[in-house]
Amino acid sequence: MGDAVLDQYVRKYIVLKLKSKPNRLHQEAKRYVSAKSQAKTLAQFMDNQWFTEEELDIIKRGRNAKSYTKAKNTDIQTYRKSSGLEAIIGFLYLDERSERLELLLQTIIKYVEERG
User: What domain of life does the native source organism fall in (predicted)?
Assistant: First the structure.
C-alpha cells in the first residue's frame, strides 16, 4: 500500500508542481520512488529522529518482513530499507493519519529535491 501511495503522490507533484511532460514523468518519478532513493530518504529521517516510537516499530516490521519478491536493480539491504519506508507510509494511510502522512510525503519530496 505504501509504495502505491508514494508513487501517486510523487506523480501528482511532478505533473502539477514541476509541470513535467508525460513522457518524462516516469524518469522523474524514479528519483523519488526507487529503492535506492527510498533507502537514502529513510536514513535522513532516522538521522533527524523524525519518527515516533510507534512509527519506528512499524518501520522495523516492514524492513524485517519476509519478502516473497526479489529486489530489482538493488541489493537486499537497500530493498529492505525501502520496504520500511513504504510500511510507514502504508500504515499512516490505512490508519487515516492524514496530517502525519502529508507531512511525511512533503518531507520525502523535500529530501529528494535537496539531494538534486
Answer: Bacteria
